[in-house]
Design goal:
Length: 278
């Protein structure tokens, strides 16, 4: 087939990387185009992913496919060698279930547990531990989530297998540790050592430097957010104090006024009464 296959991606994106790995596992040739997602998205990205404007976008013979898990399924159905998803319908359904769990539950929490600070970090850390324990349980008696070889769930779990380790190193966090999650750590090692993965991992030094900057930005965001709330709290106390004082002052002026009016009326009434007797 004289096919045209192009991937719009970003070097540090676990989502783009999923697609690259799937294409490489299948041995499919493609053209790669690096997107500057932070500063300058290309017209092609905006045109082919107008809904989310995000990478990855796979363009096959002019037709775009977006969302990494959708792209993985498309690749698996289009190029049949080295199947990524299991053939058995139940196992396929379960693979999709875990993929959803990874993207919807784990990714955000793991990211937050590595980058937030204070109470927010503690909370995210606890949540991340629970999620990682669930994944640890899923690996019991297996080398990979997919069984003996890397499959759909392993590719979807790439951020646990590589990204979390690098982010932890960059920011000094310890969410995923060998002591607490031995099966997951062993899996991450096996995963990274698979030839197709090892040869295509994003460079660690570049990654560390990138995440240090990102983490500093995010940490200062959380710090500013906390300082903002402290400032707002103090400001609110002050406003409350002024309101209470004003309230009592008004009551006092008002009651003095009433008292004055009452005295005035009493004097008038008495004057009137006395003049009747004269
Ligand atoms: N759910 C999407 C997520 C894609 C995504 O978040 N891509 C990021 C890069 S890691 C992106 O392009 N961000 C650009 C933006 O948010 O504007 C997928 O699975 O493909």
């Amino acid at each position: 087939m004289g096919e045209e296959l192009k991937l719009l991606g970003a070097w540090g994106s676990p989502f783009s990387w999923r697609v690259e790995i799937a294409l490489k596992m299948k041995g499919v040739k493609y053209e790669y185009s690096e997107e500057d997602i932070l500063h300058n998205k290309s017209p092609a990205l905006l045109k082919f992913n107008p809904v989310h404007k995000k990478v990855p976008v796979l363009i096959h013979n002019g037709k775009p496919i977006v969302e990494s898990h959708v792209i993985l399924e498309y690749i698996d159905e289009t190029w049949k060698d080295n199947l990524i998803l299991p053939r058995d319908p139940y196992k396929r359904a379960m693979a999709r279930f875990w993929a959803k769990f990874l993207d919807e539950k784990c990714m955000q929490t793991l990211w937050k547990s590595c980058t937030s600070i204070g109470a927010e970090r503690e909370k995210a850390h606890e949540e991340a531990r629970l999620l990682l324990s669930t994944l640890e349980g899923e690996l019991k008696g297996k080398k990979f989530f997919g069984g003996e070889t890397v499959g759909f769930v392993d590719i979807m779990a790439n951020f646990v297998g590589y990204w979390v380790g690098v982010i932890q190193e960059a920011v000094g966090a310890d969410v995923l540790t060998e002591g607490e999650f031995p099966l997951l750590c062993k899996w991450a090692e096996e995963f990274q050592n698979r030839p197709v993965i090892k040869e295509n991992l994003p460079p660690k030094d570049k990654f560390l430097a990138f995440f240090k900057v990102q983490a500093e930005m995010i940490t200062s965001f959380y710090k500013n957010k906390r300082e903002f709330w402290v400032f707002l709290g103090l400001w609110f106390d002050w406003v409350l104090c002024v309101c209470v004082m004003s309230f009592f002052a008004v009551i006092k002026v008002y009651s003095n006024g009433i008292l004055g009016v009452c005295c005035f009326l009493i004097v008038i009434v008495r004057d009137n009464d006395e003049s009747q007797f004269n």
